[in-house]
Design brief:
Blueprint: E1 4-10, E2 16-21, H1 24-32, E3 45-52, H2 56-67, H3 72-81
């Protein structure tokens, strides 16, 4: 099992969904089967980033923190670099 934060992109409306899980394979299957209320109407989805976390608690905290950024450019930076924004070092 892989614990972490994941970002999905809707191929229907191009929007992103951010979630956390302790089993990414199981969670992706739930999304694909339409069993997740928040994403069932925006299928199909593509996994665009997965950021591993040490524990489920760490993953939930990171998910909450990432969702609070609310800026598309920051989410795109996370997708590109596969790092949380607070891990980026600015010179």
């Amino acid at each position: 099992m892989k614990t972490g934060v994941y970002i999905l992109k809707s191929l229907k409306n191009q929007r992103h969904y951010i979630g956390s899980t302790k089993d990414i394979d199981r969670r992706l299957a739930q999304h694909e089967l339409g069993k997740v209320k928040a994403t069932k109407n925006i299928l199909p989805l593509e996994l665009v980033a997965f950021l591993p976390c040490g524990t489920p608690t760490d993953a939930r905290r990171a998910e909450y923190k990432l969702k609070n950024y609310k800026r598309k450019d920051i989410i795109e930076l996370v997708i590109r670099d596969k790092k949380f924004p607070w891990e980026h070092v600015r010179a």
